[in-house]
Amino acid sequence: MKITVVGLGKIGLPLAVQFARSGHTVVGADVSQRVVDLVTEGTEPFPGEAHLQDYLSEVVSAGWLSATTDTAAAVSDSDAVVVVVPLFVDEEARPDFGWMDSATDDIARGLRRERNTLVVYETTLPVGTTRTRWKPRLEQGSGLVEGEDFHLVFSPERVLTGRVFADLRKYPKLLGGLSEAGAQRAVEFYEQVLQFDERPDLERPNGVWDLGSAEAAEMAKLAETTYRDVNIGLANQFGRFAAAHGIDVYQVIDASNSQPYSHIHRPGIAVGGHCIPVYPRLYLWNDPDATVVRAAREANAAMPSYTVGLAAGAAGGSLAGKRVAVLGASYRGGVKETAFSGVFATVDALRQQGAEVLVEDPMYSDDELRGFGWEPYHVGDPADVVIVQADHKGYAALTAQDFPGVEVVVDGRRALDRSGFEGVRYLTVGTAETVGELPQTKEIR
Fold it and tell me: 150, 143 in Cβ contact below 8 A?
């Protein structure tokens, strides 16, 4: 097949490489000339994706993958088009379709009746977007009829950056079309470009799963990510209660999860990234009365401020004038990405307390950290308070000696080895400093 992948970002480029490694001719289309030039050279535009550089060099040198900024031209010669263009959201996670609209218009200009092209959107969307927004836009821009001259399908990406190639094999490929013929085309397409691990834990064989409609596929992606947000929100509620009453919530969670119907996640300082903080909002876009979803999102958004409050309490009630080192700008360990990272709210809450705030992250240079408006911190420099915001692997080796003068440590990710902080007031989110009896003066209802 000839395939165009529109959007060569952290998901789109690995997808393009995967398709090429499966024996197909792939053109990657992107608005960035820099990205196109780097891909054309066989150089990954961003670090951190396992195997990407090796695989990219392989398929570019073999002539299986090329890149262009001319999306319409690439589409005009393609049997299938896969769209992985970002859907931007504002601070309230309200969708901004600007980039996707522009890409869709380019795709429409390239569609040709004689090719009967399959068009698949993989970007996570509010339910109904494929049918009510992309179908009429593609038809208007091309003068063609969906279901007759081209086929439109939604198939959500379900991978995490840093491990895309492994996740493509591990998880079933979900999809839903606007017609049975389109869905069948998509099933055949993905069966040719993906390979799947055996999953005896699944009730049906791992592979390509047709969910029957684009709306079902759209909702499946929102449901699986919203579930995680709600679960974490519940864990954070448990954690706050447990810490206030001298209970170790991690023992509680481990005990609960020993029963096969309990799958409680872990509490923590923040929920960040492109997915979990955003997709529940996209679900609420369709279902504003979903009170459980809204409450969980609000609970998770409050965790950075709560964690800073733990630090203030342990420091005697105030952080005014304290030198506070925040460890981790990334939204999660091992990933150089700050999308909706908890670092922003953590820094804001610390500054409101009057603290002198510094940020450390092994994946970012001092200049990059200053670009966010933060003063860099270097391990080994004095600090009164340390707050762990991201679980970078190297943090586990840190001890109190790495933070001269430290009085309080709040480990928001359970990333540190507590034994290395003897003599320091050390707290984790969801665990009190000491485990004691429940207060007898307050009735728990």
Answer: no
CA of 296: how far to CAs of 228, 231, 309, 401, in Å?
Answer: 10, 8, 20, 38
pLDDT at 105: 98
Tell me the pLDDT tens digit for each residue of 53-65: 999 999 999 999 9
Which of 263, 355, 264 shows the shortest CA–CA distance to 307?
A: 355
Separation between Cα atoms, residue 432 and residue 310, nearest integer Å: 10
Question: Alpha-carbon torsion 47, 218, 83, 191, what sign?
Answer: positive
Q: Outline where 287-443 has alpha helix (H).
A: 291-301, 303-314, 342-352, 366-371
Type of residue numbered 74: A
User: How many Å separate Cα 139 from the centre of its chain?
Assistant: 32
Q: Which helix (H) or strand (E) holds 229?
A: helix 214-244
Residues in contact with 306: Cβ distance below 8 Å, sequence separation at least 6, in sequence order: 240, 429
Residues β-bridged to residue 5: 28, 82
Count of positions (residues) in the chain: 445
Digit-coded pLDDT (tens) for 210-265: 999 999 999 999 999 999 999 999 999 999 999 999 899 999 999 999 999 999 99
Burial of 298 from C-beta contacts in 10 A (0-12 / 13-18 / 19+):
exposed
Least trusted range by pLDDT, from 77-86, 87-96, 149-158:
87-96
Identify the burial level of 277 via C-beta atoms within 10 angstroms of its C-beta, where 0-12 means exposed, 13-18 middle and 19 or more buried: buried
Tokens for 46?
């961003």
Map residue 425 onto helix, strand or coil: strand
In Å, what is the CA distance from 248 to each residue of 40, 273, 422, 432, 433? 53, 27, 19, 7, 9
Q: What share of the chain is helix, strand, coil (3-state, %, to 5)?
A: 40, 15, 45
Distance from C-alpha of 150 to C-alpha of 102, rounded to nearest angstrom: 19
Phi, psi of 80 (to 5 degrees): -145, 145
Helix pair 214-244, 279-286: axis angle to 10 deg: 120
Token couple for 124:
């996570």
d(CA 224, CA 240): 25
pTM exceeds cut of 0.85 = yes
- DSSP class per residue in 290-315: -HHHHHHHHHHHTHHHHHHHHHHHHT
Query: Which residue from 73, 183, 79, 190 is spatially nearest to 130, judged by alpha carbons?
Result: 183
C-alpha count within 13 angstroms, C-beta hemisphere, residue 360: 21
**pLDDT of the residue at 431:** 82
Distance CA 293, CA 285 (A): 11
Beta-strand relationship, 2-6 and 80-83:
parallel
